Amino acid sequence: MDNPRVTVWNEFRHEKSHESVKAVYPDGIHNTIAQAISNSGLEVRTATLDEPEHGLTEQVLAETDVLTWWGHMAHQEVSDEIVNRVHQRVLEGMGLVVLHSGHFSKIFQKLMGTTCNLKWREENDSERLWVVAPGHPITEGIGEYIHLEREEMYGEPFDIPEPDTLVFVSWFTGGEIFRSGVCYRRGKGKVFYFRPGHETLPTYHNPEIQRVILNGVRWAAPTQSAPMVFGNAPSLEGATA
Ligand code: ZN
Known about the structure:
Elements: E1 6-10, H1 14-17, H2 19-24, H3 29-38, E2 44-48, H4 58-62, E3 66-70, H5 80-92, E4 95-99, H6 106-112, E5 119-121, E6 127-131, E7 145-148, E8 153-155, E9 165-172, E10 177-186, E11 189-194, H7 207-220
Parallel strand pairs: 1-2, 1-3, 3-4, 4-11
Antiparallel strand pairs: 5-8, 6-7, 6-9, 9-10, 10-11
Helix pairs in contact: 5-6
Zinc ion binds next to loops.
C-alpha cells in the first residue's frame, strides 16, 4: 500500500499534568509524531484517551490503515471494548506501531499473550540502538546505529514472544541490552514495537527516531491479499475418497 492512512493514538495525560512533559511536548506527543508522519505526505489524524470511545470509533478505525500507540499512566482506563475493536482490526490487516511504554498497553499484551514486562531505570543513561537486521525496510535511511544522549533504560528480560524479526537491539550505559525493535504478524496484521520515547525527553523530535516510526508505519501498512478462508473445504481436485 503506497499511502496508508495513519491514526496516531496518545494517552495524552502526562502532557496535561506534568510541566516537565508539557515543556517538551506542548501540543502532546501525538502531535509531534503526527507532524513528522504528515511531513512525508501521508494522511494522518490523531486520537486520544479522553475523547469519546478514546477517539477510536468504528468509523475512525475503518479509515485507519496503520495505528500508532503511546500510553503509560492510564493503560487500565482504556476500555476492553475498544481494545477488542482494535484487536479485531489488526487481525483483519490494520498495522499497529506500539511505542515505548505502550509495551504495557492492553492491546499489546493481548496481541503478544505475555506480560510484556521488563526492567527499567530513569536516570542519566545514554542509549545506542544497533541495527541487527540490515536491509530491513524499517532501517531505511538509518546508519549502523542510532545514538540517544539521554533515554530511560529498558532492560532484558523483555517478556515477549520470540519476534518474527528483531530489527534493533539497544545498549545502555548501565550495561543492559534490550530488544528495541521487534516485528510480528497477527492474523493479517503487522505489529512493530519500537522502544525509545520517554515522555520527559525530546526523543520524538529526533529525525532518526521519526524516520524509524515512519518506516514502521510503511512496513506495517496492510497488504492487499485474499481473505482468510476457514472451515470445511471441498477438494480443489475433485473426489479424494
Ligand atoms: Zn518511559
